[in-house]
Amino acid sequence: MATDLSAKNCVPCKGGIPPLELSEAEALLAQAPEWEMVAGATRLHRSFKFKNFQTAMDFVQKVGAIAEQEDHHPDIEFGWGYANILIFTHKIDGLHENDFILAAKINDIAI
User: Fold this and answer.
1) Among the four 1, 29, 43, 109, which has the fewest Cβ within 10 Å?
2) Do residues 28 and 104 make contact, with C-beta atoms less than 8 angstroms apart?
3) Beta-sheet pairing, 43-49 with 75-79
4) What 3-state class would DSSP assign to 105?
5) Is 35 exposed, middle or buried (0-12, 13-18, 19+ CB in 10 A)?
6) pLDDT confidence of 3, banded at 50, 70, 90?
7) Do 31 and 100 touch, CB atoms closer than 8 A?
8) What is the pLDDT of residues 29-77, one digit of tens each?
9) Any idea what DSSP says for residue 5?
């Protein structure tokens, strides 16, 4: 199910701007179901479950393709039956609208 966020594209962040305020991040989080803010609301995290290793790996490859297309790269941990994704904007060490755009796009391909 596409959201308004998943229709947008990530815009390169050059740093020098503050991370989103908590209220701004919470409003965007509503458009990225099943994601949670962690680490003092400076990161987005979601765990995905799969029936086997191959399905998890296929999903991670799709996430990687989206990350390359958007030029915004999450931290991904995966293994047999799972994938954990952590998203944040490194240059501001916190959350930016791009993080929520990427989360929404990942939701759109979730198996």
Assistant:
1) 1
2) no
3) unpaired
4) helix
5) buried
6) low
7) yes
8) 999 999 999 999 999 999 999 999 999 999 999 999 999 999 999 999 9
9) G
CATH of domain 44-111: 3.30.1360.20
- 3-state DSSP call for residue 107? helix
The shares of helix, strand and coil residues in the chain, as percent rounded to the nearest 5, are 40, 20, 40
Q: What token pair was written down for 89?
A: 């904007």
Angle between helices 22-29 and 97-109 (to 10 degrees): 20
Given CA atoms 20, 73, 85, 109 in this order, what sign does their dihedral have?
Answer: positive
Separation of alpha carbons 72 and 101, rounded Å: 10
